[in-house]
Design goal:
The protein has 485 residues and is an alpha/beta fold. It is 39% helix and 14% strand. It contains 16 helices and 15 strands. The strands form four sheets. A seven-stranded mixed beta sheet has the order 4-10-9-8-7-5-6, sandwiched between helices. α6 runs parallel beside α13 and α7 runs parallel beside α8. It is globular and about 70 Å long. The two termini are 48 Å apart.
């Protein structure tokens, strides 16, 4: 390790002085940064670490990152680096990408048309009037009134158990994506050393948010062979192994990445568990209108645990508008108000014209809802279900074990019987993208807790079914014709 000494390094020293090897400067100019350096040293006690023998302007030499940033870098060196490598393969020429979970069809027409109108509302009309001078300016921090009202109406009009809706207790908040929604709830509820519980595999951002809040993630392993079903014993056993500081239980249904849709029995188990240990539930239900089995519709956790559930939603999945980054949360006002504070410090507000589009689309869903019927699948769900069946058939024919999806954007399969890659999901995904089939998929490694790498499954692969029919058809054809054995 290089010998280092405390040294203050203000960025301003280097901002206006450039070293250009092609154009040598005079001696006085080269000494100018050093003079500024010494002058600053004499006036400040700020301490940074810099190599004693170096005057390099390389940021890695003069900047000391926070412990949190370092922790994230360590995370990225494992699952994060793998994710980057695999997704890079999906961008290679000729590769069919069914790895990444962005939809390439079915974006909500009403939302787009409404947003277009909203964007032009600050332009003069023929009469010279400006309908809305603030149409493209900051929205109120909690969200526009139209959007907040639309979120409340959505959860009221599409509730199965109408008695679970209490608008004197509950309210809404608009966030810049469901990712931010999760972040602000974590910030509002957690203290350093608290614990967050979720089912494993899980959306990787749950772990990231736990890391940001200096909390531990307690994951409850689900078994693929059992259909990723949750039992009461699983929760209790995980809690008994914890430090008994679980403050949040994050539940995703339809589940990313497994496609499991929680039953009423499972939701009652979670509700009982949260009440028993005074835990707040985050219901990550962004895929709620993407269910495939008529006899197994999506059921909302809040209808079984209304007094302590925060529900997350987003236009990314509900409307296939993943680039808009419009999300929301709905739940007890005492929690939502605290979340609003952190939201104001994170993104401040969500794009105004996009809120106009999403609010109109939410109201359109409500206009077609039947009171007491609950959440119903949208028209895109039929395409997703058909895609899942077609892809499952091709994967099965090529030797994989497929775990049927009940909802969501993904299909999971095991490669344990593929001898050429020793049943290893990472090797399977690399070979699938690089060799004959040239189809990209994602190993499930990033969806598990890296702290448990020794016991995590290594044979599971996630395939995205949220693609155009011809994309899935081409991927299925290639997999059938070029199986890895």
């Amino acid at each position: 390790m290089q010998n280092v000494q405390p040294f203050p390094v203000p960025p301003s020293i280097f901002l206006n002085h450039h070293f250009d090897s092609a154009k040598p400067r005079g001696k006085s100019n080269l000494l100018l940064p050093l003079k500024r350096y010494r002058s600053f040293i004499a006036r400040t006690k700020i301490r940074h670490l810099i190599p004693k023998s170096s005057m390099s302007t390389d940021a890695s030499d003069i900047i000391q990152l926070s412990a949190l940033a370092t922790a994230f870098q360590e995370q990225q060196s494992g699952p994060g680096a793998l994710w980057a490598e695999i997704t890079a393969l999906s961008r290679q020429p000729g590769v069919v990408d069914i790895g990444q979970g962005y939809p390439d069809f079915g974006s909500n027409v009403i939302a787009k048309q409404s947003a277009k109108r909203a964007i032009s509302m600050d332009e003069k009309t023929i009469s010279g009037d400006v309908p809305d001078a603030r149409a493209n300016q900051y929205a109120p921090i909690p969200g526009t009134k139209d959007m907040l009202d639309a979120v409340k109406r959505y959860y009221r009009e599409t509730a199965k158990n109408v008695s679970s809706v209490d608008e004197t207790r509950d309210t809404s908040l608009v966030t810049t994506s469901a990712t931010e929604a999760l972040y602000v709830v974590f910030r509002a509820l957690l203290n350093k050393g608290d614990e967050v519980m979720t089912l494993s595999p899980f959306f990787p951002w749950y772990l990231a948010h736990a890391t940001v809040t200096e909390c531990s993630l307690i994951d409850v392993p689900l078994n693929a062979e059992d259909g990723f079903v949750l039992t009461e014993d699983m929760l209790e056993q995980a809690y008994m192994k914890s430090e008994k500081r679980v403050k949040i239980f994050v539940h995703c249904s339809p589940h990313n990445p497994t496609g499991h849709v929680s039953s009423e029995e499972e939701l009652k188990i979670i509700a009982k568990f949260c009440r028993k240990y005074n835990i707040v539930a985050i219901a990550d239900e962004v895929y709620e209108r993407s269910t495939f089995i008529e006899s197994k519709p999506h059921l909302r956790l809040r209808e079984y645990l209304p007094e302590r559930t925060i529900t997350c939603g987003t236009s990314s999945k509900l409307m296939n508008l993943s680039g808009w980054r419009v999300g929301w949360i709905y739940g007890p006002k005492v929690i939502i108000d605290a979340c609003n504070t952190f939201h104001s410090y994170a993104s401040f507000s969500t794009p105004t014209p996009l809120q106009a589009g999403v609010s109109d689309a939410l109201n359109d869903i409500c206009d077609h809802a039947n009171p007491g019927e609950g959440v119903t699948p949208d028209e895109n769900a039929r395409i997703l279900a058909s895609n899942a069946n077609l892809l499952a058939s091709a994967l099965t024919a090529s030797g994989l074990t497929v775990y049927p999806a009940e909802g969501g954007f993904f299909l999971v399969a095991s490669v344990k019987n593929i001898k050429s890659i020793d049943g290893d999901a990472i090797q399977y995904c690399k070979k699938l993208a690089r060799e004959g089939a040239k189809v990209s998929a994602v190993p499930m490694t990033p969806f598990y807790n890296p702290a448990k790498a020794a016991t995590n499954p290594t044979d599971l692969v996630r395939f995205a079914i949220c693609k155009k029919r011809d994309t899935i058809e081409e991927a299925a054809k290639r997999i059938r014709e070029n199986p890895l054995v």
